């Protein structure tokens, strides 16, 4: 038996780690242990409930107005006790959060090997996205095993002189859809059940990244407002992040508009099923760039760069920046040009076939046997 400790603390991590945890629970050669940091408390708990996962350890680090300093220090100190109590053979972390980097560093201090799920994503700009780019780069330097969603992610690691234990697995977010998406799904949020999905075109949007706070987010909201006023037959749905700085801007520009629905963050199941029924996704999120192409939904990325260039290259994603005019022009192109829309909608999804978790488990078991 190999004991695997999975550590995660935010909603995006949980969406991608829970399918892996469920798969490990079925593996007779593994003992799966879960530690959550609760870097995001409420949004994390919603995902755990959907996947029916009860953590073995809960650091509960979230605090009001928390800073990166707070999160990093609490995770490292909290994990010291968890690692000493659980004695795992390997620690799994995911992606690019502060939880992931701090957990990897704590494991390193205890000389415990680290497996990095969703390894090798890069923008090569340490301040964009911030702090994610450095979190994933530093986690990659610490990790012993690297589970890359795509070949391009693997190539990034090879260029950084990481030469062994790199496995191309696909992205575990595709695995999650087996649990969350159903044709007969009834939304948990009653406001969503009142919307005419199937009768009108819907645009799902999110925007909340640190680098977009201030003027960029204002530009995004202005662009959406112009689109909503011009295309009254299209409905915009925006689950608004709980960050007060985000909500202040978004509600100032978009609240009270007839064909714009502003919601508090919705459950992962609501989000996935709403996405599956949408016409277009407009976002600054990383995860939605991977999720929407599975459903054949074009994605406009309201950022100046993406760490997921394979989606751009395959044609499922388009980076449009954060200028009002550019966002409006890109959205109108897809709204008015059916040929261009179909070209994006029918592009090949580069993120896998829904079996990433199985490949990760196989790689861990192979590595463990070689180590013995």
Automatic annotation (TrEMBL):
Residues 28-364 form the UDP-N-acetylglucosamine 2-epimerase domain. This is UDP-N-acetylglucosamine 2-epimerase (non-hydrolyzing). Its EC number is 5.1.3.14. Keywords: Isomerase. The keyword Isomerase applies. It is an enzyme of class 5 (isomerase). One of its GO terms (molecular function) is UDP-N-acetylglucosamine 2-epimerase activity. Pfam families: Epimerase_2. InterPro entries: UDP_GlcNAc_Epimerase_2_dom, WecB-like. CDD domains: GTB_UDP-GlcNAc_2-Epimerase. Belongs to the UDP-N-acetylglucosamine 2-epimerase family. The keyword ATP-binding does not apply. It comes from Christensenella minuta. The lineage of its organism: Bacteria, Bacillati, Bacillota, Clostridia, Christensenellales.
């Amino acid at each position: 038996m190999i004991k695997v400790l999975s550590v995660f603390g935010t909603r995006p991590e949980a969406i991608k780690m829970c399918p892996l945890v469920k798969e490990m629970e079925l593996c007779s050669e593994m003992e799966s242990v879960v530690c959550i940091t609760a870097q995001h408390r409420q949004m994390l708990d919603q995902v755990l409930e959907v996947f029916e996962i009860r953590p073995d350890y809960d650091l509960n680090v979230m605090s009001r107005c928390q800073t990166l300093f707070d999160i990093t220090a609490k995770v490292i100190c909290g994990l010291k006790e968890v690692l000493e109590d659980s004695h795992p053979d390997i620690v799994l972390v995911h992606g690019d959060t502060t939880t992931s980097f701090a957990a990897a560093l704590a494991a390193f201090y205890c000389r415990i090997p680290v497996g990095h799920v969703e390894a090798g994503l890069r923008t090569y700009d340490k301040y964009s996205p911030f702090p994610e780019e450095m979190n994933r780069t530093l986690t990659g330097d610490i990790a012993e095993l690297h589970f890359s969603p795509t070949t391009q992610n693997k190539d990034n690691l090879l260029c950084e002189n990481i030469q062994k234990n790199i496995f191309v697995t696909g992205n575990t977010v595709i695995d999650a859809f087996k649990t969350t998406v159903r044709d007969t799904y009834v939304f948990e949020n009653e406001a969503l059940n009142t919307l005419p999905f199937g009768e009108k075109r819907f645009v799902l949007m999110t925007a909340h990244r640190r680098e977009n706070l201030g003027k960029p987010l204002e530009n995004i909201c202005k662009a959406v407002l112009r689109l909503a006023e011009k295309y009254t037959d299209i409905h915009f749905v925006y689950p608004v992040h709980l960050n007060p700085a985000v909500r202040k801007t978004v509600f100032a520009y978009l609240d009270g508009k007839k064909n714009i629905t502003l919601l508090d963050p919705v459950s992962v199941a609501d989000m996935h099923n709403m996405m599956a029924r949408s016409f277009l996704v407009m976002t600054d999120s990383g995860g939605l760039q991977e999720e929407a192409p599975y459903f054949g939904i074009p994605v406009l990325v309201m950022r100046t760069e993406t760490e997921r260039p394979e989606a751009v290259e395959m044609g499922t994603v388009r980076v449009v920046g954060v200028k009002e005019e550019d966002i409006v022009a890109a959205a109108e192109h897809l709204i008015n040009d059916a040929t261009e829309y179909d070209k994006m909608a029918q592009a090949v999804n580069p993120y896998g076939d829904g079996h990433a978790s199985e490949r990760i488990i196989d790689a861990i078991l192979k590595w463990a046997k070689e180590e013995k």
